[in-house]
Amino acid sequence: MVFLVASILAAYLIGAFPTAYIFGKLLKGIDIREYGSGNVGATNVFRTVGKIPGILVFIIDVLKGTAAVVLLPLAVKTIDPDAFILSYDYFYILLGASAIAGHMWTCFLKFKGGKGVATTAGVMAGLSPGVLGACLIVWIVIFSLWKFVSLASICSAVFMPIFSLITGKSLEFIIFTTILCIAGVHAHRSNIRRLIQGTERRLVSSSKS
After folding, report:
1. Half-sphere exposure of 144 (CA within 13 A, CB side)
2. Could you identify which of 68, 124, 139, 145 might form a hypothetical disulfide with 11, taking C-beta atoms 3.0 to 4.6 angstroms apart as the criterion?
3. How many CB atoms lie under 10 A from the CB of residue 188?
4. pLDDT band, residue 16 (cuts 50/70/90)
């Protein structure tokens, strides 16, 4: 039980690492929460700090999710092969959920973090590359057509539990991705408002004729 609690806490702290905030402070001396969209995520860094920092933040945030569901279980098994960690599905789902929660509600920034897209992608890369790949295709198609990161992320979130069901994942995993879908859409509620109002910013400006 000690290993279970320690693993969940460690996953949360990995996810809570405020990558975007740190890059903003180190590279421009700014609080990323006070610039652009105010979101502590890669897209805001991309727009506010620069393209390369934005890409690096995205990669690190993805790796946070993957580390939580791949490296942590390996560490637990290395330290104590007989440690009590629940069943396979429940343990990995708890770690993934903790890492995503850490990113979205980081204790290092008064529990106000990012929207969890990159960290969710990292968790899915570790738990189900197939579902991630299908969601990535949805993301690319939507972004290619409309150039809205938010819209592409929302659509990918909506399709995540659908792809989990289609690919025959366990009930626990389908419930997990459904919760992630709801959390992801809820995190983008301000973007949804701007999309409806026509004021949402595109990552790449459309060419003018």
Report:
1. 6
2. 68
3. 22
4. very high
Contact 28, 57 (CB under 8 A): no
Handedness of CA 159, 163, 164, 166 (dihedral sign): positive
pLDDT tens for 146-186 read 999 999 999 999 999 999 999 999 999 999 999 999 999 99
Distance CA 100, CA 108 (A): 14
Torsion angles phi and psi, residue 147, rounded to 5: 65, 20
Domain interval for residue 55? 1-127
* Strand ranges inside 18-172, DSSP E: none
Secondary structure class of 114 (helix, strand, coil)? coil
Nearest to 112 by CA among 122, 121, 101, 120: 101
- Would residue 83 be called left, alpha or beta, if left means φ above 0 and alpha means ψ between -120 and 50 degrees? beta
Tokens of 82: 């007989």
Q: Of 101, 127, 153, which marks where a domain is finished?
A: 127
Please say if the pLDDT value at position 125 is more than 80: yes
**Is position 209 within any domain?**
no
Residues 97 and 169 both lie in one domain: no
